Amino acid sequence: MLNGGLIKKYSDRLPLDSDGEVVTLHEGATPLLHLKNLEICNSKGVRLFAKFEGLNPTGSFKDRGMTVAITQALREGYKAVICASTGNTSASAAAYAARAGLPCFVIIPSGKIALGKLAQAVAHGAVVLQIEGNFDAGMEIVKEMAQTQGLAVVNSVNPYRLQGQKTAAFEIIDELGEVPDYHCIPVGNAGNISAYWMGFCEYSGYKLPVHDIYHYQRTTIAKKRPIMLGYQAAGAAPLVNKEIVDNPETIATAIRIGNPQSLSLAKKASEDSEGWFESLDDEEIIKNQKLLAQHEGIFCEPASAISVGGALKDIERGKIKEGSVVTCTLTGHGLKDPDIVIDKFNMNVVEVPANRKAVAEIIGRYIS
Ligand code: AN7
Questions:
Q1: What's the chain's average pLDDT?
Q2: Rounded to whole angstroms, how far apart are CA atoms 155 and 81?
Q3: Under a CB-based contact definition with an 8 Å cutoff, are residues 286 and 308 in contact?
């Protein structure tokens, strides 16, 4: 079957009429990859899988939410959309707005978003407003602009975003053929963990009355729900510290957020599932990004690696039980942030004269 995007695929589980005009870039249907080469999983009998959301059309999970939010904004007759962003939301909003023929305004923290994401917003013709302030400050401005200027907000405070993003949980169960024991996910603004929980609940017959538009399909597919584990960067960990962080800092700029908009939904997901929140520092984040790239062939961005990093840490110290099935969301593609790799990885880039002898000599050093 051709991939017609999420709204067509999950038409019975989304609060939209799939017969109307749909704005899609054929998002979703991302791979669920078995991580086979990680020692600790093999020794503990854990089966660990990564849902690689970096393979969505704009390179992040945001596209799942954006197809629904932008389609709805268009149908409701909005003349333009706006978002605050640490990068990926702006890239996705810019692309889907371009496809819908709507102007797009994005507010980003000056100097604190990855180069690839800025390039995407520019490429798709969004109006980029750089502020001397962080994501949380941008979010407050966006909410005000929505009120005073009549724009559609396409951040995850827009409930249509979470509706779209819940489909990743459906895909995990569909593809795995069972419900994982644990699901691990990076947490920034806390929308995605809330959306996954909604999806896992819906598939197993639990109704979560989170907001007015919540569309709930009764057909039950699954028998249980996973334990939800949320991982944050140590310098931006309001859910771990249980207090808002005024000046969040981390190398993983995607999750440099101190005042998550979906804080209470995320807490509910964690409590209801008997899960927990944990933080990893920048060094651990880069270590895990490298591990995935060099041992599994998966190039994700730093914020994404935190889910696998967190899982491995909790497997090692026995918080995740031996013999479990664990899934992790890798939220964005590594190509979004090339600067990090050039700065932080040890490069195997060697200057060499343009002749066979010199090249052969270098190769010899590696394979002798
Ligand atoms: C790669 O783009 O908030 O907890 O403005 O880009 O749902 O916020 C990005 C968030 C994880 C956190 N991984 O998800 C934005 C933005 C990546 C991200 C998150 C983001 P939420």
A1: 95
A2: 10
A3: no
How much distance in Å is there from the Cα of 39 to the middle of ligand 1?
29
Of 319, 285, 43, 64, nearest in space to 181 by CA? 319
Q: Kindly report the pTM of this predicted structure.
A: 0.97
- Ligand 1 nearest atom to the CA of residue 266, by list position: 4
Backbone angles phi, psi at 306, to 5 degrees: -65, -25
- Can you tell me which atom of ligand 1 is nearest the CA of 165? 7
For the segment 172-191, what is each residue's pLDDT rounded down to a tens digit?
999 999 999 999 999 999 99
**Which ligand 1 atom is nearest residue 88's CA?**
2
- In the reported structure, the alpha carbon of residue 1 is separated from the centroid of ligand 1 by a whole-number distance in angstroms of 30
- The whole-number average pLDDT for the span 150-157 is 97
Helix 263-272 to helix 191-203 angle (10° resolution) is: 40
Mutate to test the pocket of ligand 1, among 189, 265, 270 (most ligand atoms within 8 A of CB): 189
* Burial of residue 247 (number of CB atoms within 10 Å: 0-12, 13-18, 19+): exposed
